[in-house]
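Before relying on records like the one below, remember that each one covers exactly one chain. Contacts with other chains, cofactors or solvent are not represented anywhere in the record.
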Amino acid sequence: MSDQKNIKYDFAAIEKKWRERWLTEKTFKAEKDASRPKYYLLEMFPYPSGKIHMGHVRNYTIGDVVARYKRMKGFNVIHPMGWDAFGLPAENAAIKNNTHPAKWTYENIDYMRTQLRRMGFSYDWDRELATCDPAYYRWEQQFFIELYNKGLVYQRITTVNWCEDCQTVLANEQVIEGLCWRCDHPVRLRKMNGWFFKITDYAEELLAECDNLTGWPEKVLTMQRNWIGKSTGVEVDFPLEGSDMTLSIFTTRPDTIFGVTFMSLAPEHPLVEKLTAGTDRQAGIREFVARTVALKQQQELDYELDKEGVFTGRYCVNPFNGDKVPIYVANFVLMEYGTGAVMAVPAHDQRDFEFARKYQIPIKVVIQPAGQTIDPAGMAEACTEPGVLTGSGEFSGADSEEAKGKIIAHAESKGIGRGKVNFRLHDWGISRQRFWGTPIPMIHCRKCGVRPVPVEELPVVLPKVVAIDRSGKSPLHTLEHFYKVSCPACGGEARRETDTMDTFVESSWYFARYCCPDFTEGPLKKEAVDYWLPVDQYIGGVEHAILHLLYSRFFTKALRDLGYLTIDEPFTNLLTQGMVIKDGAKMSKSKGNVVDPNELIERYGADTVRLFSLFAAPPEKDLEWNDQGVEGASRFLFRIFRFVMANRDMLKNAAAGVVADQLNDSGRILHRKTHQTMRKVGIDIETRFHFNTAISAVMELTNLLFSATAESAKEPVEPAVVREAVEAALALLAPMTPHLCEELWQEIGHDLTLNEVSWPSYDEEAAREDEITVVLQVNGKVRSRLQVAPDIGAEELQEKAMADRNILKFSEGKTVRKVIVVPKKLVNIVVS
């Protein structure tokens, strides 16, 4: 084979050539095509923060491999890209640079678009969109109005984090130890009017459809189910002592209702203030409520506070047995779940048990597990096992599970309760007191109330010339030309809504707009969304496993019910890729361990960066950054380039087909390895997305190719076999390292590009091993070996083993007790 030493791999020139060709020729433009099955591949679109990072590179490379692979498999692939462009960072940058958020955003989009193109991703750039474009969010405003008219949007008072100094609402993440993250001034809770999407109307369907999402990771489905949080139980009314009011509780354990010894209220429960008004406990309870609510606002949703409570001085009455029950305000009760009041049964709930022990509240056992007699005085923890009811009136002696339904029926017959289904999920608050977001298209009139903006007047556009105060507060409520409008109903003076929408709204339907980004007659073009949706494969970080995915699912169902879509779920398959780790931590600016993709591309080329991000770990696992791994990926591509370029004349002139029965031993081995590699790579990509093992298989093939064609090889390999191996390696690597593979494919004489050829198909017969070695043992000790066909049956293998000369020698005169056959590996004869 030819000398390779002086061949230079100019990856920069090659990559520039192919990305310009793809862009000019619109190679990846997607059009409807009834002759081919469609395939919608989508990665979660980025926020235009300024630069792509290695997490982006990994995410988008994974998606690009699948898109290119599916294209070669004959699918009509749509692979769009756009920008999740609204958000707080743009406002902060606008304040810092004294500019409009749009300027900063679009400059970043331009820069990041260039970066993505340098990576060679196969996007249909004609479908690009930015959510901050009025041409996009006008349709979002229309959806809002239509959902409002359908009763799925409403306003109510809600509690928010309020910074008086900045005059703005803060997200929980922006409250640090009770202080504003921006100005370090104290944050207080404030009640404000906010807009909500009625996602709870879809709770049952959102939960039930989880069972149909068979292409989603089970851990994500578990998170979705837990977030929706369906509970079946009973709501019971406890009369307040000395009042005509009642306190309603929801419980999933009606079998324990005779064991209630105290009641717990959420700090935000409206009865708290009424129960303590004018009493000597009022001030202390107010202080406790304020402190608890502020602390809860700052914690993660799954963070568990140390259990604390305050006795209100008031009692309610258990309607089942007449017991007088003290009422506490407790920090562990959630207002968002059930009624915000919880009946406490310390004998049978661990949280209640700990609270009761702390505050010396009586414990009453009402369920005795089979074969046990539990004494409250000797309990070290709550008993949560099922058993037989005791101390439960007419239900005593009943099985605790069977008693649940009977107790619910009793409550309903006596008018003291009703069976009920509750959800942890609560309605989606979408109001934000920010400037850089989609304006909420509503108008407030003193005479007519709240009215939607007429659809023909959409979009309500953010002002183009605006100065954002250094405090960060939205200027919209100070701009008369924005908020001062006429009422669409009476024509009188009115005020435009100055809140903007949560940015999750934009990302809840962008995948549908990609199907028809230039459509101007409505939000979605029916023929386009009916053809392309649902998304066949969605790829993104597991950090979006709950909110983004849940909101997208809700929006899909809502748009279906508005008549825009015919699908029930937006994403058929979901892949959540792992993080990129360096020095034991996730890459981030704050940790100082960021690797700049631009620097890597300059030094090694995009194909090397792509290859390393795929080879270092399976996509669902975290990727540990390794400089040596990048070097290794680069060397591998250099070797392939040099080999092909050194032998291109031979490869061009070699016969296009292989005559298997005319090959010498070296040729037969390489021919077999080529077809085995085609089989393995196809399986690894198609069934598991295990690109690392697919790449490893190609590396094994090329190592054999290089050694079989080296000057030191025992016998020459037929050129046709070498060509077959090279073409297979290039086609198999094409989705992963497209620039290099296209260049070499062209160099060996092909007129069609790899984007225009089919994925290589293997010959099962050619991939079959000639023979395999099976170990033969007697009592676990190796005594011989057999060369057999790889598809030999267990019975035939045992017969051959028992007839082996060495096996006969070591088992002579002994009784065969057992024969253990491990197909394709060993036979162990147990004798005594």
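The mean pLDDT is 93.
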